[in-house]
Amino acid sequence: MANQSTLRFGAQTDEVTSLLRIVNLVRTGEATTRPEIGRLTGLGRGVVSQRVDRAIEAGFLEDAELGPSSGGRAPRVLRFRSEQARILVCALGALHIRVGVTDLDGRVIADDHAPWDITRGPDATLDAAIEMAETVLAQTGDAPIWAVVVGVPGPVDFSSGRPVAPPIMPGWSGFDVRARFEERFSAPVWVDNDVNLLALSERDRRRAQNVDLIFCKIGSGIGAGLLSQGHLHRGANGAAGDIGHVRVLGSEELCRCGKIGCLEAVASGWALIRDAQRAVAEGDDGALAYFVKNDEELTPEHIAIAATHGDALAISLIQKSARVAGESIATLVNMFNPAVIVIGGAIASAGEVFLAEVRQRVYELSLPLATRDLQIVNSANDPTEPIRGGAQLAIEQLFDATFPRWFADGRPTIQGVLAAA
């Protein structure tokens, strides 16, 4: 690309600012022709033409088909070259690993999934995730990787990419997750809480860039991702939304974090498995007893499925989880005043059995104004949700937060994106 020295971060000119804006206007679909760009930016036709030519020369844009005519010659439509690079997402759960690859528009190209126990520790887990990533990448051609996103089921210091005392991830606290992926893929890496990725996926699915939304995941663990006017609210240190460790009044159950009476110790998947095992030991002989008595692994999904098929024990467990989770969610509603609450996760997959109880508790315990227009809905339960959410995080970081730092190089680098942060 010509005259790169004039485009370096720190010497950013009006020309560079307008050039970056034009690329993003086309990328987001806000403007797809030169006349539309001129109307939105206020730039003259000659300047727009010059900037577009430079964006095409840099490889970000290209001319596509002719657009509709408004009376004169039909304008040429511009398109963002989303296929020029890949985004890699590794979503680590308590009991699984999901890996996916997307283009720069966030479209999933390939993905894979495998059962995995996060308590096996960071070295074994990241080795397995990277091996899966390499297999998936082999299916997607030779386009370069511009970003990697890793989701983990616990609190994360977003600036460093290190988990901080995650209750269900022994051995992970302070582990440099980012470095392992940087070393292997030579691309900028962002690490975030897995529920934040789900919140971003929901924003993208709804095409609601300015939504106030809470995504509550009720699975093996419990957490919430908070979107304020479409932006993730992580809090001062990345702990925002960690509702799994708020106290449940009257509970004396020991939580995996070491404290007594946490929401997770009462309402999470592992807590319901514990309660199911207790009930079977006391004589319950329903559907869940089969797994316990035959020493087969009982999972949160088994409990949710049994509840939807009418098993009395499973229904009682699901409803108990929903009641206490709903009480904590009601507190978030009063404090945060979202427009939408999306409920996801293995336990929430019980559907209306779970959702109806949550709705009842939220409406009982929240202020009328906070619930006046509130929607409480189930997630789409799309297995690629964390992949799509991770891609949205990468796109946001690349093209909103760091674009001026790396545009002149033609592609993001670790040093250009993260070292300058």
UniProtKB/TrEMBL annotation:
Coiled-coil regions, chain positions: none
Record-linked Pfam families: ROK
MF GO annotations: kinase activity
Stated name of the protein: Sugar kinase
Family membership noted in the UniProt record: Belongs to the ROK (NagC/XylR) family.
PROSITE patterns: ROK
Protein species of origin: Microbacterium barkeri
Lineage top rank: taxon: Bacteria
Record keyword Kinase present: yes
Keyword set includes Kinase: yes
Keywords: Kinase, Transferase
